[in-house]
TrEMBL record:
<feature type="DNA-binding region" description="H-T-H motif">
    <location>
        <begin position="35"/>
        <end position="54"/>
    </location>
</feature>
<dbReference type="Pfam" id="PF17940">
    <property type="entry name" value="TetR_C_31"/>
</dbReference>
<dbReference type="Pfam" id="PF00440">
    <property type="entry name" value="TetR_N"/>
</dbReference>
<dbReference type="InterPro" id="IPR009057">
    <property type="entry name" value="Homeodomain-like_sf"/>
</dbReference>
<dbReference type="InterPro" id="IPR001647">
    <property type="entry name" value="HTH_TetR"/>
</dbReference>
<feature type="domain" description="HTH tetR-type">
    <location>
        <begin position="12"/>
        <end position="72"/>
    </location>
</feature>
<protein>
    <submittedName>
        <fullName>TetR/AcrR family transcriptional regulator</fullName>
    </submittedName>
</protein>
<dbReference type="InterPro" id="IPR036271">
    <property type="entry name" value="Tet_transcr_reg_TetR-rel_C_sf"/>
</dbReference>
<keyword id="KW-0238">DNA-binding</keyword>
<dbReference type="InterPro" id="IPR041583">
    <property type="entry name" value="TetR_C_31"/>
</dbReference>
<dbReference type="InterPro" id="IPR050109">
    <property type="entry name" value="HTH-type_TetR-like_transc_reg"/>
</dbReference>
Length: 196
């Protein structure tokens, strides 16, 4: 008779619990202080279970970070891209990103991951691929809505978001208003240029 508690669903749940534990520890402790022991304690599992489900602690940190970064950006972008007007979408996107407290664990995880990526080629490649996917998705969406230079707008928008989030982490008083005004004006100009 098969034990249902050791089936694929339970393995998936355990793996997800381990990944969530690592993701919660990265902003709390810093990238380098997230160890197998600490993840095991947070997840309520044996240290050996971590290596069974994920492999090395480095791989676990990468999986946790890239998954959370994907959710952070794509979740907010999906909401914005439900708008039809590109200028409104940009404003919705930027307001959603600016709504987070600069010390929010999601943002701290992003910062920790970007610093770690400077020393970890695989992490750098995975984050770069995620950002490229994000830029392409924005580019395609802008192109479908008549933005004259969709790649220019997508690259400018993603670079501005990165810069704004970084500046706000250093100076929480930086307000998103001027950035939103500038990027909305850029998008409106590009829509008008396509229509002329």
């Amino acid at each position: 008779m098969r034990n249902e508690s050791s089936g694929p669903s339970r393995r998936t749940d355990t793996r997800e619990k381990i990944i969530e534990a690592a993701a919660s520890l990265i902003p709390e402790l810093g990238w380098g202080d997230v160890s197998s022991r600490r993840v095991a304690e947070r997840a309520g599992v044996n240290t050996g279970v971590i290596h069974y489900h994920v492999g090395s602690i480095g791989e676990l940190r990468r999986i946790a970070a890239v998954g959370k970064i994907r959710t952070f950006f794509l979740g907010r972008i999906d909401e914005a891209l439900s708008q039809e007007d590109p200028a409104v979408a940009v404003e919705v996107m930027l307001r959603a990103l600016a709504a987070n407290d600069p010390r929010d664990p999601e943002l701290l995880l992003l910062y920790e991951s970007l610093v770690a990526a400077s020393r970890d080629d695989q992490l750098r490649a995975e984050i770069a691929a995620l950002l490229a996917e994000l830029r392409q998705r924005l580019c395609d969406w802008f192109a479908a809505r008549g933005v004259a230079h969709p790649l220019t707008v997508a690259v400018t928008l993603t670079a501005a978001i990165d810069g704004y989030l970084l500046q706000r982490s250093l100076d929480p008083s930086v307000e998103p208003g001027p950035l939103i005004d500038g990027l909305v004006a850029l998008v409106r100009q590009q829509v008008a240029a396509d229509g002329s």
